Design the sequence.
């Protein structure tokens, strides 16, 4: 049975191995030079002092000026972001449906191999291959991008991008392993395996559902995995130089001294605890920036922030991976039960 699985799956295995080999070469060639740029920037020693803003900007600007690093990062992140979905579509969806459409399941399940054993071996071996492919690719990209992560994020117009951002989070750490397991188990166990029983529709549904999950999880599930931390502090006069005012007059001041954190909410409050709305005051309507800042400082405003500290990054990675692995196991179990008790002829 294992030999048959290898015979049927060897083409996908060779493609996955070739992709991993190409990325290993690309990342292996560019990674050491990226690490040397980080070591030469002085960031490795300044973190103890906590005054690294200028060095961080210089390091990110230096990377941003070299087109190689953005290209490698975007390519790696894009491939890793698509890998779980492609695994579900091209590895999982055809696995059972091609047997059903061709009618070969009648022969396969009457040669001393039960339905349960056939599906368990296929699910186990190819599922592990899917997780290993996503895991190795994520491991290589995480290693390559470690200097960027230590600096606070990848340069996008010289601004820092948190590791909690949906794209960065989904393409680093161990989360891609859970995504790959879920995508494969969903396509194999629920959609393509037995319920749809047609390859092309199963592929389409798998891709659509996985894309929907990638939107739902970051926006509606991930923020609630761990209760956010809160911080309230007085706003200094200098902070008003960077304030932002919405169309309805609500004012926010950018959060500072929170490198790599995931900002959930940022409010400017009055002494009574209400959201501050900038009124039509002459100091800010017709006065200078200094006059407006002085008037704002006299209002004794406070900044209230809800956030996830950068130190919780791996906790979120483990929680989300565990959720997807649990879903994958549940769907696999359902698939085994369904294929054993349903008539497929």
Sequence:
């Amino acid at each position: 049975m294992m030999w048959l699985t290898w015979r049927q799956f060897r083409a996908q295995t060779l493609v996955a191995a070739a992709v991993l080999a190409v990325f290993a070469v690309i990342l292996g060639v560019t990674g050491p030079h990226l690490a040397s740029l980080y070591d030469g920037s002085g960031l490795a020693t300044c973190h103890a002092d906590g005054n690294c803003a200028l060095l961080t900007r210089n390091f990110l600007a230096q990377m941003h000026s070299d087109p190689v690093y953005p290209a490698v990062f975007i390519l790696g992140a894009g491939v890793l972001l698509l890998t779980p979905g492609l695994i579900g579509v091209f590895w999982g969806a055809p696995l059972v449906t091609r047997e059903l459409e061709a009618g070969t399941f009648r022969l396969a399940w009457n040669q001393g191999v039960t339905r349960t054993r056939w599906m368990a071996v296929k699910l186990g071996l190819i599922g592990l291959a899917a997780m290993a492919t996503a895991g190795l690719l994520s491991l290589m990209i995480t290693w390559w991008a470690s200097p960027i992560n230590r600096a606070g994020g990848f340069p996008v117009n010289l601004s820092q991008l948190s590791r909690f951002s949906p794209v960065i989070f989904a393409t680093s750490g161990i989360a891609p392993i859970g995504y790959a397991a879920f995508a494969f188990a969903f396509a194999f166990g629920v959609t393509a395996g037995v319920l749809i029983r047609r390859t092309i529709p199963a592929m389409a549904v798998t891709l659509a559902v996985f894309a929907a999950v990638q939107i739902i999880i970051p926006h509606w599930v991930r923020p609630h995995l761990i209760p956010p931390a809160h911080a309230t502090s007085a706003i200094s006069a200098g902070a008003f130089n960077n304030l932002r005012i919405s169309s309805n007059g609500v004012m926010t001041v950018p959060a500072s001294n929170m490198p790599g954190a995931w900002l959930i909410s940022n409010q400017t409050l009055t002494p009574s605890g209400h959201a501050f709305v900038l009124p039509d005051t002459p100091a800010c309507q017709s006065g200078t920036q200094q006059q407006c800042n002085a008037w704002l400082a006299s209002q004794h405003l406070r900044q209230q922030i809800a956030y996830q500290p950068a130190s919780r990054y791996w906790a979120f990675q483990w929680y989300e991976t565990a959720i997807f692995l649990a879903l994958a196991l549940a769907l696999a179990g359902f698939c085994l039960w369904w294929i054993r008790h349903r008539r497929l002829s």
